[in-house]
Amino acid sequence: MVLGSFGTRGFFKAKSFSGETKHFFEFNKVYFLKDKRYETFLIEKIRETPKALLIKVEGIDSPEEIKKYIRCEIWVEKKYASPLHTGEYYISDLCQCNVFFNGKIVGQVKAVCESAQADLFEVKLENNNIIIIPFLDHFVETIDIKSKSIYLREDCGLL
To answer: Structure pTM?
Structure first.
């Protein structure tokens, strides 16, 4: 995520959602997600500090130019994404998964949001209502990325 500008030459402070930063040095292109659209930028330089990554991309040369991208998500090609550990998933894989309850599709994941306790699935139900489901074992029984399916526990008390 773009956190803010740094210096006067267009560098910006970036946060990695995974907490990993080494993989940022392996690619030369990033995508900013702004207003539900991706904008592509080539990376000129990356520096790491104890508190944040500092990134300079082509076409952004001043603090004023980076301001419109503050709080934008930074996306990379999947082959360059941080490696997953057991029980971890890429947000892009979770979005569009069908959600099952008692063996029936009840909706589809539209977004994943961070919260203090756990990540949250924003699920659009078959009746077009939106519900929030915590990504916790108490609610989620199984996730099968290959079949794009998330199975809720029958005793989760949500539906």
So the answer is: 0.68
